[in-house]
Specification:
Elements: E1 3-7, E2 14-20, H1 30-40, H2 49-52, E3 57-61, E4 63-64, E5 67-68, E6 73-78, H3 111-118, H4 124-130, H5 135-149, E7 155-163, E8 166-167, H6 175-183, H7 192-207, E9 214-221, H8 237-246, E10 251-256, E11 274-277, E12 282-285, E13 293-294, E14 297-298, E15 303-309, E16 320-322, E17 329-331, H9 342-365, H10 370-385
Antiparallel strand pairs: 1-2, 2-6, 3-6, 4-5, 7-8, 7-9, 9-15, 10-15, 11-12, 13-14, 16-17
Helix pairs in contact: 1-5, 3-4, 5-9, 8-9
Length: about 375
């Protein structure tokens, strides 16, 4: 079973992730992971922290000479801002200072509910872990998953398809062209005209001390039919992918394929007709409204997912809240934040989807080494072609 855990606080010394269940023989270097960590820090509308941090991963275990060993892989990312927080976030009791307590929870955050749940009178104990800074570790994990999937022809790419109500138009071009266009976009979108309008909207929100959300789209290509299963609720691939996306901070909705639009359309405009390609020796769908998943299983078409991100709740023009100590109405506390983090959310979405696809892939094909996994995979593809 492929699984991972992350640990660390936003202003703690470092973030850590441990991945268990990877086969041996995956080609892996820190530099490849760092590419995705850098992408996460980019994007129009990011805040001051991105000027402080330059995330780089250190591989502490599970890799030797550029290949995984089959043992747990430990990834570590140093928080450069720790030097300014080493006393406020110290694990030692000698540094305790009630004068730095945060008692004004921010609306829309985990602050108040977390303080009640964990019986703390300082919401910093909550906000440090609930912060989206944690996603840096998940991006590193996702980068490892992508390196595992890459030799099997599976790729995961994410885009910003909507921002602040401004929708990007997807041109009828090959996926590689969409990837190319998004790679030259500060907002990771494939529509140049929409990007210009999105930037103006971000500028407007920044000027008013507000924030903006949007929609990210993830496309998985190259998956064989049969990842996931229909036989139990927790083995359904779409359910697992939806949970992974919903676990990202600020994500409030997920759809697969045409998603919610299916509720308003007749069945003839929802379901994908099946055809057969003799040259490719495979069954095909004439359309892909299902988003590549039917009955909880990948069907061989592109997997298309979308996730809706709410505007970041930390506002430089703060909303009203209540002081936990005095119960008086006050302005919410302000932590350093972004006006728009939708492009970063796209990179995180790409990462969590990559891990779930890798997990389902390992369940299907198994193997303690990549060589064994490859043998199982190739045998299955031969079977599918002869079905």
């Amino acid at each position: 079973m492929l699984r991972y855990l992350t640990a660390g606080e936003s202003h703690g010394p470092r973030l850590t992730a441990i991945i268990e269940g990877l086969p041996s023989g995956i080609e892996l270097t820190a530099e490849r992971i760092n590419v995705d960590l850098a992408r996460r820090q980019q994007g129009y509308g990011r805040g001051g922290r991105m000027k402080i941090e330059t995330d780089r991963v250190e591989i502490l275990s599970g890799v030797r000479w550029g290949e995984t060993l089959g043992s747990p892989v430990t990834l570590s990312i140093i928080n450069r801002d720790w030097e300014n927080w080493c006393e406020k976030m110290s694990p030692e009791p000698a540094f305790k200072d009630d004068g730095v307590r945060v008692t004004c929870p921010r609306p829309g955050h985990a602050d108040l509910t977390g303080a009640i749940k964990y019986n703390v009178r300082d919401v910093r104990n909550i906000l440090e872990r609930s912060s989206a800074r944690e996603t840096a570790a998940r991006v590193a994990v996702g980068a490892v998953a992508k390196e595992f999937l890459r030799p099997f022809g599976i790729s995961i790419n994410a885009f910003v398809s909507e921002l602040g109500g401004i929708k990007a138009k997807r041109a009828d071009v090959h996926l590689n062209e969409l990837i190319n266009r998004a790679s030259h976009s500060e907002l990771f979108t494939y529509d140049v005209q929409a990007e210009a309008a999105m930037k103006l909207h971000i500028d407007s929100m920044k000027a008013s001390g507000d924030s903006v959300g949007g929609v990210v789209e993830v496309i998985v290509s190259g998956t064989p039919p049969g990842l996931g299963s229909h036989v139990q609720w927790d083995r359904k691939l779409d359910a697992r992918l939806a949970m992974a996306l919903m676990s990202i901070q600020a994500i409030k909705g997920v759809e697969v394929g045409i998603g919610f639009a299916a509720a308003a359309a007749p069945g003839s405009k929802v379901h994908d007709e099946i055809s057969y390609d003799p040259a490719g020796m495979r069954f095909m769908r004439k359309t892909n409204r299902a988003g590549g998943i039917e009955g909880g299983m990948s069907n061989g078409e592109e997997i298309v997912l979308r996730a809706a991100m709410k505007p970041i709740p930390t506002l430089y023009n703060p909303l009203r809240t209540v002081d936990m100590d005095t119960k008086a109405e006050v302005e919410a506390s302000v932590e350093r934040s972004d006006v728009c983090a939708v492009p970063a959310a796209a990179v995180v979405a790409e990462a969590v989807v990559a891990f779930e696809i890798a997990s389902a892939f390992m369940e299907k094909f198994g193997g303690d080494s990549v060589t064994e996994t490859r043998r199982n995979f190739d045998s299955y593809l031969q079977y599918v072609r002869g079905f």
